[in-house]
Design goal:
alpha/beta; globular; 30% strand; 4-stranded mixed sheet; 8-stranded mixed sheet; Rossmann fold; 28% helix; 204 residues
Length: 204
């Protein structure tokens, strides 16, 4: 069972439909007990880090999420759910986040390009993740909507990079924790392939 965390800022329904299309059982929940007992946990999101961290705190979901990860259970963060995996975000005046990975989320400074970065762009799979992400390949297109990005984190955890004026981290994968700056649920067949690879890894 895939449990999708509903914390008031997510695109939960489309993520649920994507998993169900792949044949997985998926539920949306904001209940602490459901999060604590989840087999596979997904935190989606659209919006701002400050709002996300406030909602997760008010719903008393931060500890269950951290415990899920610490216990080695499969976890996927999508877009905003990806950004809060890092130590700090400059959004909303500066927000401490979950700190699962080192790194700071900063706003794009791209005077010659439109911000937010919105639309289709390609991924560059890092060599040490090629086998784990197969059959995905570099240069495939996925869908983005974001104004903030992680530029520097644990290099071993960086699964893909993408360039929008500057290179940035577009996904991470380390042990049981996966995260994507792009929206797999909006990325057509490539996004569904990514989710199926995640599910396959979660069952190991």
């Amino acid at each position: 069972m895939v449990t999708i965390v509903d914390y008031g800022v997510g695109n939960s329904a489309s993520v649920q439909k994507a998993f169900e299309f792949l044949g997985a059982s998926a539920r949306i929940s904001s209940q602490k007990g459901d999060i604590e007992n989840a087999d596979i946990l997904v935190v989606p999101g659209q919006g701002a880090c400050g709002q996300a961290m406030t909602q997760l705190t008010q719903k008393d979901l931060l500890t269950p999420i951290k415990n899920h990860i610490a216990n080695g259970k499969p976890f996927l963060g999508v877009c905003l759910g990806f950004q809060i995996l890092f130590e700090f975000s400059d959004e909303d005046g500066g927000i401490p986040c979950l700190g699962i990975f080192p790194g700071r989320v900063t706003r794009f400074q791209l005077p010659d390009l439109k911000v937010p970065h919105m639309g289709w762009n390609t991924i560059d799979i890092q060599p040490n993740h090629e086998n784990a992400l197969a059959p995905m390949t570099s240069r495939q297109h996925v869908y983005f909507v974001h104004s903030y990005a992680v530029e520097h984190t644990d290099p071993d955890a960086v699964a893909t990079r993408t360039t929008y004026g500057i290179p940035f981290v577009s996904s991470v994968r380390k042990d049981n924790v996966w995260g994507t700056q792009f929206h797999p649920e909006k990325s057509g067949d490539v996004g569904l392939t990514y989710l199926s690879v995640f599910l396959k890894g979660a069952k190991k």
